[in-house]
Amino acid sequence: MNLKQLRLGLWVLVGLVAAGLVVFLWQESKTEQPAFSQTSLGTIGGPFNLTASSGKPFSSAELNGKPAAVFFGFTHCPDVCPTTLARLTKLRRDLGKGNDALSIVFISVDPERDTPAEVDTYMKLYDTPVIGLTGTPAQIEQVKKQFGIFSRKVEQPGGGYSVDHTATVILLDRNGQFSSTIAMEEGNDVALAKLRRITA
Amino acid sequence: MKRMLFIPSLALLAACGQGGKANIEVSDAWARPTRGDAPGAVYVTIENKGGQDDRLVSVMTDHAAMAMVHQTEMSNGVARMRMAGEINVPAGNSIKMVPGGTHIMLEGLRTPLHTGDSFPLVLKFRESGEEKVSVRVAEAGEQ
């Protein structure tokens, strides 16, 4: 084999690798995308029954007719939960459509400590309406499953426990259908655009 | 290239001019209100104006049974709260604690924190010793 043939051979090899890469990436994008949209659009949310902070039963049907921002947390959470609720109340204010345009919903992932009365005093820290919900451990597990929420109790060094939990806010349209999410790290302008979409 | 070296050496010279000691200033200490027996979180700004690195080793307050530096970590949308250990405050740097990150957790509050109240907090540094600061309890909706 002379040098010319070798060079040609190498170029053919480069071409084959490049073609392979294109096919591989195309396959990847094809397999990943439908899986994602399926879990997000098809299965997040759905009807649920919990207990309101008043102690009365709460059906998710009470949310219908109004878009909602749903956040899962616990009242003994000093940083992430008050930060997220403060952020949501500010975003609703920035939206400029009044408190009736969007329900802010807090669902406890710590039903052992979060009695309706506990949740009630927690919600009253805010000078704007926030719907606080809790329930039996079985009810909470069910709702967590419906919304794809992870949570786990973690023992604290000085006694007591904290709860690791999904801090992503789930946005529902006025029919209770999943619309999108707001992540902790997401900028307020993006979050506001998402809220505008469901409150339009 | 010469200039790139020149700037850090200038900074180093300036730092040496400070006497080579850490000089810690704690400011803008605030917390959100709490209720019941729930823990609170305090956010502070720590500035090291000196020429020596320093470390925040512990936090004390009469207002709670325990004060610990905690860190909220996010992964895959899940928030986890963990002990942060000692916080390094390099010479000439400042650290601003913001919600959703490093914070001082107060466990076993003597009384819940009410908006408008304030209480003293002592931060202990390895080099600079104790720094006292007054913590302002803000509105629940404060960002």
UniProtKB/TrEMBL annotation, chain A:
Q: Which ranges form a coiled coil?
A: none
Q: What is this protein called?
A: SCO family protein
> Would the keyword Zinc-finger be found if you checked this record's keyword annotation?
no
Cross-referenced SUPFAM superfamilies: Thioredoxin-like
PANTHER family in alphabetical order: ELECTRON TRANSPORT PROTIN SCO1/SENC FAMILY MEMBER (PTHR12151), LINALOOL DEHYDRATASE_ISOMERASE DOMAIN-CONTAINING PROTEIN (PTHR12151:SF25)
**Species, as recorded:** Sphingomonas caseinilyticus
InterPro entries xrefs: SCO1/SenC, Thioredoxin-like_sf, Thioredoxin_domain
Residues of the signal sequence?
A: none
Arranged from A to Z, the UniProt key words for this protein are: Copper, Membrane, Transmembrane, Transmembrane helix
List all membrane-crossing ranges: 6-26
Where in the numbering of this chain does the Thioredoxin domain appear? Answer: 39-200
TrEMBL record, chain B:
Q: Which SUPFAM superfamilies match?
A: DR1885-like metal-binding protein
Name of the molecule in the record: Copper chaperone PCu(A)C
**PANTHER family xrefs:** BLR7088 PROTEIN (PTHR36302), COPPER CHAPERONE PCU(A)C (PTHR36302:SF1)
